[in-house]
Amino acid sequence: MANRTRLQDQSTEEAKFNILNPDGAFAAQDAQPGSLQQHCRTFILQSVGLKRLARIVDLPIPQTMVNFLANQLSVDDFYVNRNNLNSEHLTHCVYPAKCLLDMSEVLLKCVPPCLADERVKSIMEAWKGVSHPNITHNLVQFNQGGTEIIVFEYPPVALVDVLAEQRELRRLLPEYLIWKAFSGLCSAVKYLNEKGIIYETSKPTERISFDESGALKLDSGLLYMASAQDNMNAMAMGDSNTGLYSPPEVLKGQQFSPASQVWLLGCVLYELAAMEPAYKIQGTDMFTALANIMEGRLPPEINACFSDDLKTTINECLRGDPESRPSVEELTNRATVVTARMQEVYQGREIVDL
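The chain above was modelled as a monomer; its predicted structure follows.
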């Protein structure tokens, strides 16, 4: 079974990471006896669970307790192990954590005052109210010491882990699972476009995971807020076995658009089928991949066992001319139809059980 790298369980004070002061050491504090109100809060939240915290107003308890439960969440209710963090977590202030109230695994996104510029504020405003079954869910948000902290669900299986494990086993994904994942991804992107949000990322496969039932989850745009500099850094830091995902028109200086999203969707679809990036960097040679993208060359054909529908969809998405690519709406409709048709005869396991 392909699992996201699990959070380490050594919950020691030495390993604890202070998300409000990343550069400082975490000072261990002597445990202080809590008040009766605090004990009641902890007991209720442990029973309710973090995922249902947003609906806590529906509980049959006094309003004063509701306010206390909903508004008094703090970083002390979460444990972040510094051994689980990588450079991307630190750069984007995104921290895998364990909620100490119900021991669920979550992601914490921190936006300190020094980073809350107009661009970030506009992104946060745009993503208010975003709710889709194929987008990571924002569970709750609170402010501590001027830092906005957003708590997200943490789907247990990452796409990059699935691909790595299948490559090691020299196995291809069943085509039904490829279409099912692609259908969920297209649905999420279409939903965001309808809300006026153009989802942009230089690492599309790293922004996808799956929940326990195998449903695709696209990272919220609040977690890793993309910028032009991020895209440049991604290309500069590319190495063997990674790929380039920048559409040709963006490399030529044009603005990222819905047609550019279709290119990214095609790259993801290709990688699901081929088990490697469409435009793979060979060793330290990034320029061949760049030239292939700029000159509109299609990647190597996927395995002959896959349907013409799949091959045609990949090739249409990766056309060099943005105007000749299908729209996100067309892709969503096509993926929905093909997935439903293939589901009727599929007898295998879900992607999280492979």
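Confidence is low (pLDDT under 50) at residues 26-31, 235-240.
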